């Protein structure tokens, strides 16, 4: 099970609205506890797909993923999931 609060859902929705009409994507950063993934922070990432494919596809570049993983580690957290939109 994954646990998010309303603020995380709002952040994801706002990211989707900013990137519309293209797909948005990002990381869910948090902890693993008692079989649950507890989200502490959303981490937006730029959709790296080519322009004509961004409306229904997303791509996270390896360097962006590594930057997000490093950000999580610096806070003693983990990447517990990913999110993306379907505009």
Structure write-up:
This protein has a single domain (2-80), classed as Cytidine Deaminase, domain 2 (3-Layer(aba) Sandwich). Helix content is 31%, strand content 32%. The chain contains 2 helices and 4 strands, in the order βαββαβ. A 4-stranded mixed beta sheet has the order 1-3-2-4. The chain is globular.
Structure in a nutshell:
The protein is 31% helix and 32% strand. It is an alpha+beta fold and 87 residues long.
CATH architecture: 3-Layer(aba) Sandwich
Q: Average pLDDT, to the nearest integer?
A: 97
Approximately what portion of the residues adopt beta-strand conformation? 25-35%
Tell me the span between the first and last alpha carbons: 25 Å
Strand order of the largest sheet: 1-3-2-4
Give the ordered list of helices and strands. Answer: EHEEHE
General form? globular
Describe the protein's topology.
Layout: E1 2-3, H1 6-19, E2 25-33, E3 36-45, H2 62-74, E4 78-84
Parallel strand pairs: 1-3
Antiparallel strand pairs: 2-3, 2-4
Question: What key attributes describe this structure?
Answer:
2 helices; four-stranded mixed β-sheet; single chain; Cytidine Deaminase, domain 2; alpha+beta; 87 residues; 32% strand
